[in-house]
Amino acid sequence: MERYKQIFNESIPKAPAYWISPSGKVSALFGNEKHIEKIIDDPKSYGLDIEEIKAIYNTEGENLGDEGKAREKIILALIKKGWIRIRYYSRDDHYSVNIFKLTKKVKDYIHKWSAAMVENNQKYSQVVLDFPSSKISYSMYDLASDILFTEQRNIKQISLKVVQKFDEFEVKRIFLK
């Protein structure tokens, strides 16, 4: 954990978006800067090649930098490799934090980032941890207060199925419990 702490000793600026690398380096995005633009501008920093990125856009029939399917594929691939994507949505005062899984290292990074945001007067903002198949919401203050280390949640996705009619067996099973 010591090597991760080194990265966060610098103050993290308040910004509308961030990338956190698998090694804990934080890159703030300012103004209308987009995550995909950062990747395209410096693909090697993300472990990618510009030709690889162009090929994905071509396969999807999109222009380089469009915010469509190609962007989604590229960002999801990075998240699967341990990158953390963060975006602030001002209309409802919440941050979306895209992560693949909640490892100890990811918890450390989110804790350090959220503590910096609390120092930047974002204490009451909501933070949605957005996994590929589920979401969990916390306040920024809760994340900065180590809730990810003290609370054990089952983050399996719970789904509902819309049906026209309940199966008789299902109804009997519910009432016979």
Multimerization state? single chain
How many domain regions?
1
Distance between the termini: 48 Å
Describe the sheet with the most strands. 6 strands, mixed
List keywords for this structure.
177 residues, six-stranded mixed beta sheet, 16% strand, disordered C terminus
Secondary structure layout plus pairing:
Blueprint: H1 2-8, E1 17-20, E2 26-29, H2 35-41, H3 50-59, H4 69-80, E3 84-89, E4 94-98, H5 104-119, E5 126-130, E6 135-139, H6 140-144, H7 147-150, H8 168-175
Parallel strand pairs: 4-5
Antiparallel strand pairs: 1-2, 1-3, 3-4, 5-6
Helix pairs in contact: 3-4
Description:
The chain contains 8 helices and 6 strands, in the order H-E-E-H-H-H-E-E-H-E-E-H-H-H. The protein has 177 residues and is an alpha+beta fold. The protein has one domain. The protein has a 6-stranded mixed beta sheet. Strand 4 (94-98), helix 5 (104-119) and strand 5 (126-130) form a beta-alpha-beta unit. It is globular.
Task: Give a nutshell description of this structure.
The protein is of the alpha+beta class and 177 residues long.
